[in-house]
Amino acid sequence: MSDPTVPSEAKAVSFAAYGDPEELRFTDLAVPRPGPGQVLLRVAGAGVNALDWKLRSGMLQGVFPVTFPYVPGFEAAGTVVAKGPDVESWQLGDEVVGLTSAAYAEYAVAEAATLAARPADLPVETAAGLPVAAETAVRGLGLLDLKPGETLLIHGAAGAVGTLAVQFAVEDGVRVIGTAGERDQEALRELGAIPVRYGDGVFDRAREAAAGEPVAAVLHTSGDGLLADSVALVGGPERVVTIAAAQESGPLGVTFTSGGSTDTAVAGLARALALHAAGTLSAPVRTTLPLAEAPTAHRLSEQGGGRGKIVLLP
Ligand SMILES: NC(=O)c1ccc[n+]([C@@H]2O[C@H](COP(=O)([O-])OP(=O)(O)OC[C@H]3O[C@@H](n4cnc5c(N)ncnc54)[C@H](OP(=O)(O)O)[C@@H]3O)[C@@H](O)[C@H]2O)c1
Prior knowledge:
The chain folds into two domains: 9-130 and 284-313, Quinone Oxidoreductase, Chain A, domain 1; 133-256, Rossmann fold (3-Layer(aba) Sandwich). The chain is built from ten helices and 15 strands. The chain has helices spanning 50-57, 124-128, 131-144, 160-171, 185-191, 202-210, 227-234, 246-252, 262-278, 294-303; strands at residues 9-14, 25-30, 38-48, 75-83, 95-99, 107-111, 116-117, 151-155, 175-180, 194-197, 215-220, 240-242, 255-256, 285-290, 309-313. The strands form three sheets. Strands 3, 4, 5, 6, 7, 14 and 15 form a seven-stranded mixed β-sheet that branches. A six-stranded parallel β-sheet has the order 10-9-8-11-12-13, sandwiched between helices. It has a two-stranded antiparallel sheet with strand order 1-2. NADP nicotinamide-adenine-dinucleotide phosphate (NAP) binds at residues 49-51, 132-133, 136, 155-156, 158-162, 179-181, 198, 221-223, 243-244, 257-258, 304-305, 307.
């Protein structure tokens, strides 16, 4: 079933060789068709993730090779405009948000089971930046099996994943110490975390912030060379999880997690949307850019230096 206005070709951003951001081309490509269990979205906003530029650069081609031309983008907010034959959960015209493939496009396919309805009062740009971070936060915290009252250290707590992980953990009654740059200390405090500055001496500051309580677990989302001291802080690698330091994690016995499931995708969005419904969700958007400016979006993402998601608007 398909909206008759869906064209056979539409604008998309793709790259046909690994390289710098200029490899991203804004062209007409065939509109994908939803298969079993899938829907086609008219994309209203596509979130930009670090993985997007890492894939484009070629730095991950050994572990995550792509087929050219490759359309980046793992998350979007949009309107359901076509569905696979067996999809009952959504109707044409529904406004949804969720994980997708090839989201840097006017039209993108998503697994129907991983989507959530976008509340009318949740802006497209905020919604589009939620799915990856929410899924990752739920997955990372789930692996740590935290109990209320335990103290958790989050490295990179003001990043997209960290910001949601802080909110989910605080909601669960966990005491969160979060590392961030000077700019984001107050923002972390407002989320309910005890903020400490990242950089030299971060573990001394974290111990001081713990104020005599043991740090039970560490969620690492950012920063090089932090896992060995994290293991020492917690007293073993079992409750140290990283989403960002695969190579460092192996020799230390630390869990590196990547790639979610339908369950974590659904749970992550449900948690974020529940916070939105309660009026307490904090999910900053750094900037929005037209889809055609994907090279600028990748440069900004790679450089860092700003808080919040970058979102492309077709
Ligand atoms: N494995 C997975 O499943 C998975 C899923 C999603 C993301 N990731 C990865 O996880 C990482 C974080 O993703 P994100 O979307 O949250 O990125 P993000 O929004 O760019 O956030 C990164 C945060 O890390 C902070 N930071 C920089 N240096 C740090 C340090 N030495 N110690 C602690 N924090 C530091 C940054 O602060 P400043 O702004 O001050 O620089 C920023 O707040 C990326 O590498 C991404 O590729 C992995």
